Records
---
Amino acid sequence: MGAAVRTRTQVVIIGAGPSGLLLGQLLHGSGIDAVILERQTPDYVLGRIRAGVLEQGTVDLLDKVGAGDRCAIEGLVHGGVELAFGGARHRIDLSRFSGGKHVTVYGQTEVTRDLMNVRAAAGCPTIYGAADVQLHDFDGESPRVSYVLNGQTHEIACDVIAGCDGFHGISRASVPASAITTVERIYPFGWLGVLADVPPVSEELIYVNHPLGFALCSMRSRSRSRFYIQCELGEDVADWSDDRFFDALRQRLDPEAAEALVTGPSLEKSVAPLRSFVAEPMRFGRLFLAGDAAHIVPPTGAKGLNVAASDVHYLHASLDAHFNHHDAAALDLYSPRALLRVWKAVRFSWWMTSMLHRFPENGAFGQRIQEAELSYLTGSDAAATSMAENYVGLPF
Ligand code: APR
Ligand code: PHB
């Protein structure tokens, strides 16, 4: 192999998921140069199906970078969610309890596609298929990132590295173990999810607590639904025909929802484990972690993408102050500011998960506590206000 091709930029962003793409466009808007390195192809990145509920703060960031047009047209505005337990449904009026706020139902895949399109239109560089990405010297003032593309080694010198490469990325793994603390909870079950071109069961999302396990009826549009049921860890999707899935889902629904459930061939079916995970701090010298690279929440409450977006907002603010206003303290602010909000999202996602799933180890006491929690939540304005404030998104 010949000598490395050497270039320079201000920020190297690792990972072209929603975090990396959003950061890239916010930096572009502030006149800060960035190169994104992505291991996969664009089609591969767009093939990942994830949650689909956006807080207003996330929508505002998409608007800010010019990626919000399609979401404004196609996104479904939801002012409430339903909780089903004991055979009946109870609506939490998110708008009423949050001072008129709402969430927007719009798939993460579409968010990623819209961000890719604005990035391409702006002529900003994203290198897909970047192999063997390695981070160098981020404990000093002059970090570098190397990668291999089509057999050629490249090396980019930069001021800052943004690790936006998800839970399995190289960025967090490059930090010496002694410099990082990780906190984790693995839940003793998973979610089996199905995407299908059938109309939603109801106007709003239905979160179900049932003796057979959690279920969720969500949607991507008026003609595309996303369903989940709680399943065993390590469940094999091959054992789940569409019929078996829909029968299991129907059993967990109240009679009206069961009647309204329209079934159809699955477009995608997958099992996801549930975990809460936080790596602290989120900064190591000139390396900054954002999104899934730093933390994971269980999907109950759909906070993953939204907390990634708030990280990116804080990181952009610190980088803008550092590069454009020569604020010497700006880089120090990122990790503590981001972590305060991260932990609140971790708490809310854990709380939603704990309230709605069957925990094998909890027994009758745990079951009755869940019933009391749900009864309190649906009967108390104070409790509903707390849920609504978190579900629509804490400020940032
Ligand atoms: N080199 C380059 N790119 C990498 C590497 C690597 N070594 N490792 C991972 N990547 C890329 C992945 O291929 C992926 O495209 O980094 C990207 C990370 O994207 P995401 O996993 O989507 O993470 P993030 O952008 O932080 O998005 C957070 O995604 O997982 C959901 O719930 C989460 O909704 C939240 C959102
Ligand atoms: C989804 O639509 O995929 C979804 C919605 C809400 C959640 C989790 C996932 O809490």
Note: The pocket of adenosine-5-diphosphoribose (ligand 1) is lined by residues 14-20, 37-40, 45, 50-51, 108, 130, 133, 164-166, 169-170, 291-293, 304-305, 308 (CB under 6 Å).
---
Amino acid sequence: MKRVCLINTGGTIGMKPTPEGLKPVPGFLAEQMRLMQELSDEQMPQIEIVEYQPVIDSANMTTATWSQIAGDIAQRYNDFDGFVVLHGTDTMAYTASALPFIMPGLAKPVVMTGSQLPLGQVRSDGRENLKTAIIIAANYVIPEVGLLFGEAMYRGCRATKVSASRLDAFDSPNALPLVSAETAIEIFPERFREVLQPASDQLPLEKMAPQEIATFRLFPGMSHEVLSNVLRRPLKALILETYGVGNGPAHDHQFLEMIHAATRDGIVVVNCTQCRHGCVLQSAYEVGRMLHDVGVVSGRDLTIEAAIAKLMYLFSNESDIAMIRQKVPVNLVGELTPEP
Ligand code: ASP
């Protein structure tokens, strides 16, 4: 019989209504799962639940819990066919972006999911998401951290939450789904990432620690003073959320000089577009080229979540700033589309 380990970190899926609002309650998820007869169907694997203490709203997620999830998977790696990680939707895309960097040699499916409505509610989307995640984790060899929500499983480090209310709350604007879960489950192996590490029964883990990084969204009328406060040490890296294919107000001398001073000082400035879809191309316009010329590095089509995870990973494992800058636009774990 197939075996799946289900790690419950919290999130709406296992929450209970209380006078203060929806809250995670220990043991509630397992209680709700016992009421789901489909989980004892013969097509279903044996499921072992690991519940975190405390179970949390994912707004309280930390990088320590990212590493805890990876550590729990590594510890049980040979005992299960696959893993399901239950997680709140609010920060699921951040965790799904971080885990591939922590587990670059992953060769088994890790399927993250959650729901917009708690399992205990009549119209909950959690039951379908949970069953589909378990079936995928048990039956398919997918060397990826996936984010399954509704009818698609996306690569985790390409996914982003796009709706606070729709049941298909996630999208992967720059990478096609790894699995389609409509009436039939269809996997697309040609879209799976290439695992560079040799297959092993060990799952080595990389370091991931909080870092002094920030994001700054450009907008007409932004304050130079606010930006200069952001660009102060201890800042190590800034994700500059630019217009279109990576453009900024490069004719604003004060702005350009502030960015230049930061890059000269060793702050890594990464160009990510504000657009949901598309890739940064700093050579397309003069105002993008000028950012490149003052040392801004292209984040290509990284989501903001993946850019944050990647910078945290790079600063946790490298001390050479030139090396970090060089790795930003390079594909490491499927997080971006490399330059052709
Ligand atoms: N606030 C919840 C969480 O992220 C939202 C959800 O799970 O849908 O934990």
Note: The chain has a mean pLDDT of 97.
